[in-house]
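Blinded run. Sample ID left blank on purpose so nobody reads anything into the name before looking at the predicted structure. Input follows.
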Amino acid sequence: MRVILHSNLERGEYFFSTDHCQPKTPAGFVPITTTLPHRVTPRPALPSGVVATIEEMVLIYHDDQKEIPNPDPRYQPTPMPPVRLSDEESAYIAQHGIAKF
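Blinded prediction complete.
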């Protein structure tokens, strides 16, 4: 699943978007596009090292920031259901660093 957000570290805010190149983005916001699931170094907050959900992505990368609504409602994504991996899928990603699905 592809996830797009725009982040402003100085303001400590981020918002989700449907477009990496969203026009008229407020000053200081940087677009970030990633895919889920992906692997990170295991840590206490995520012992598996697999970032599989938007909630986990926010926990790992944006925990010190506040989510705000997209300033342009045309680019506000519809709510997405959380992605849950099976134990087999999590184990494969942990072993190989990539998803086979």
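Unblinding after everyone has recorded impressions. Residues 2-96 form one domain.
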